[in-house]
Amino acid sequence: MSNVVALERRIPAMSNDAIASVRALEHSLSDMPQQKIETHHALHGGMYARTIQIKAGVLLTGAEILVPTTLIVNGDVTVYVGDQSVRLQGYCLLAAGAGRKQAFLAHEDTILTMLFATDATSIEQAENQFTNEAHMLMSRQDGAINHFNITGE
After folding, report:
1. Model pTM?
2. Is the pLDDT of residue 78 over 80?
3. What is the pLDDT of residue 139?
4. 3-state secondary structure the chain
5. Percent of the chain with pLDDT strictly greater than 70
6. Domain-by-domain residue ranges, the chain?
């Protein structure tokens, strides 16, 4: 939990240089074999949540996030948060700012859930709201494994 305190339970927006660093890492990893990651989606009560599990040993870069979100981390992962990399262990509930693109290295199987308020009525709309890189999301790739829970409430 000391790492969460170091982050003050918040992940701030990242500088353009920090985002460019993650893009460079993403580009260098693009020719390597890609791990299939299932995405669980929930659209309920004006909230969108997406949950993935990163297997131990997997390095993952995320999409650029354009909206403030809540990020729940459960496991053991090092996350690049701009000017530092921080190891998060156990259950961590973080307020995460808009304007970030992160890299995660899982030391153990780790579950990540991102939530944000939305007026979207479909998963596609919600994905388009939180990122301008929706076309790069694993949930949009051929052979993607998605689980949906859309309540209409």
Report:
1. 0.91
2. yes
3. 95
4. CHHHHHCCCEECCCCHHHHHHHHHHHHHHCCCCCCCCCEEEEEECCEEEEEEEECCCCEEECCCECCCEEEEEEEEEEEECCCCEEEEEEEEEEEECCCECCEEEECCCEEEEEEEECCCCCHHHHHHHHCCCHHHCHHHCCCCCEEEEECCC
5. 95
6. 2-150
pLDDT (mean) for 56-75:
96
Q: In Å, what is the CA distance from 12 to each residue of 23, 67, 106, 123?
A: 18, 12, 21, 25
Instruction: Could you please state the CATH topology (level 3) that the domain comprising 2-150 is classified under.
Output: Jelly Rolls (2.60.120)
Asked whether 58 and 32 are in contact (CB, 8 A), the reply is no
- Residue carrying the six token digits 């990399």: 85
Residue 21 Rama label (left phi>0; alpha psi -120 to 50; beta): alpha
Amino acid at residue number 60: L
Indicate the pLDDT class of residue 2, thresholds 50, 70 and 90: very low
